[in-house]
Specification:
Pfam families: ANTAR (PF03861), PAS_3 (PF08447). This protein has 218 residues and is α+β, with helices and mostly antiparallel strands. The protein has helices at residues 30-35, 48-53, 60-73, 128-159, 163-177, 181-193, 199-211, and strands at residues 13-20, 25-28, 77-84, 90-101, 107-116.
Length: 218
């Protein structure tokens, strides 16, 4: 029986990217490079100009504005647009990104994923029905990301990890258990909700909640 939380890799492709503000540098995963028609990440040096070159002409101006916002602010964003790979294939994509921070919490840039469910879709796939489906996909992906972020926060608190370490731990458990990342995160979140904290632990959190403002007030 088909599991909708385990999409066929041939039907859905994805790739990870990151942008580092200080160095004005983009990084692509091998999967994202291949999505654009390159053999691997080593075969291409992604730049802002290259990103725009691969955008569909009808989407290019809108995405150019978004790229400038990313380069100057590193803000989280989501976008639905089309890319054109090296072979001229038009591919509708959903891009979801979040802020990238260093260990001190300073914003370093942006990271995120390109996701496409239509690797051979035609250039007219932005009709109203497709647009509605894509919007629902974005909403669902944002909801799932929120679940993963909450579980990451719990792991950071319990194990005293930074955000990347907590995410790596979650990914490792996902791979080891052969359970999709969101499905595992949702299961962890349900079990965490059932944990009965000791009165001492709750009292410590109470004290922090009521007095933490003193750390930021002069």
């Amino acid at each position: 029986m088909h599991d909708p939380d385990r999409p066929d890799e041939a039907a859905i492709r994805y790739g990870r990217f990151s942008y580092h503000i200080d160095e004005d540098r983009w990084e692509w995963s091998d999967q994202l490079a291949r999505l654009h028609g390159y053999d691997s990440a080593d075969a291409v040096v992604p730049t802002s100009d290259l990103l725009l070159m691969h955008k569909h002409p009808d989407d290019r101006d809108r995405v150019a504005t978004l790229i400038e916002q990313v380069r100057h602010a590193g803000e989280p964003f989501s976008s639905q647009h089309r890319i054109v790979d090296r072979h001229g294939t038009v591919i509708p994509v959903i891009v979801i990104a979040d802020s990238l921070h260093d260990v001190d919490g300073r914003r370093q840039g942006t990271f995120g994923f390109y996701v496409t469910g239509s690797p051979n879709g035609d250039s007219r796939s932005d009709d109203l029905g497709q647009g509605r489906r894509a919007t629902m996909d974005v909403d669902e992906m944002v909801r799932r990301r929120a679940t993963i972020e909450r579980v990451k926060g719990a792991l950071m608190l319990v194990y005293r990890l930074d955000a990347q370490q907590a995410f790596d731990l979650l990914v490792w458990r996902s791979q080891e258990s052969n359970v999709k990342l969101y499905t595992l995160a949702a299961a962890i979140e349900r079990r965490i909700a059932d944990i009965d904290l000791s009165s001492r632990a709750r009292a410590n959190v109470d004290r922090i909640l009521l007095n933490a403002h003193e750390d930021v007030l002069d």
